[in-house]
Amino acid sequence: MPDTLLIRQLGRREYESVWHAMQNYTDSRDSNSADEIWLVEHEPVFTQGQAGKEEHLLLPGDIPVVKVDRGGQVTYHGPGQLVAYFLLDIRRLKMGVRDLVTEIEQSLVELLKGYDIDAYAKADAPGVYVDEKKVASLGLRIRKGCSFHGLALNVNMDLDPFLRINPCGYAGLEMVQVSDLGGPSDMATIQDDLTRIIAQRLNYQQIETITGFMND
């Protein structure tokens, strides 16, 4: 189903089970497997990418730290943050990883523009920013020509845990969220708007939405 994008609504879940499910899907997929975007809110967790340095974990306290196989440094996930995982066959899409990063970033910029939020990407620091504050983080992994991991958009959450780390390895980087910038706080609205924009930008002919995993 190369022309179909499957949106998988996962609700609220702890991080590690979703991470391992991403790995398993990527390892087992073939040339006929559907491209999927998984939408999820995670229980509180810090994730440390392959380039992550311990010095950027300032005071993690009671929030667990998980070392993962994506690019980038350390970030925080928690309820009220939209996480979108991109399980795409980028060889089939005839895209490089830099192309995919750009499309994800520009999809977020377009999404926020629709809410009258002036956001932008930076060439030297993946993610999306508003007035030099970070509203969305981005980290990917490519295996067998396919992507996994993805983006985290701060929507309507407790931002205090970001103070316990140097977000994305930048000391003093301030985080901001959509609801504080005048955008919606409703997760379903943002999910629908974002997936529509991404599907258009990546030229999928149709979108199918399902809830959960088959073994739920």
The span between the termini is: 23 Å
Structural class: alpha/beta
Q: Which percent bin holds the helix content?
A: 10-25%
In order across it, which strands form the biggest sheet?
7-8-9-10-6-2-1-11
SS strand fraction: 25-35%
Shape: globular
N-to-C SSE string, H for helix and E for strand: EHEEEEEHEEEEHE
What about the largest sheet?
Answer: 8 strands, mixed
Could you please describe the fold and organization of this structure?
- It is a single chain.
- By secondary structure, the protein is an alpha/beta fold.
- 21% of the residues lie in helices and 33% in strands.
- It is globular and about 45 Å long.
Question: What's this model, at a glance?
Answer:
With 216 residues, this protein is α/β, with parallel strands linked by helices. It is 21% helix and 33% strand. It has helices at residues 15-28, 97-113, 187-201, and strands at 4-13, 35-42, 45-48, 65-67, 74-77, 81-87, 120-122, 125-130, 133-143, 146-154, 206-211.
Question: What is the fold's blueprint, element by element?
Answer:
Elements: E1 4-13, H1 15-28, E2 35-42, E3 45-48, E4 65-67, E5 74-77, E6 81-87, H2 97-113, E7 120-122, E8 125-130, E9 133-143, E10 146-154, H3 187-201, E11 206-211
Parallel strand pairs: 1-2, 1-11, 3-4
Antiparallel strand pairs: 2-6, 3-5, 6-10, 7-8, 8-9, 9-10
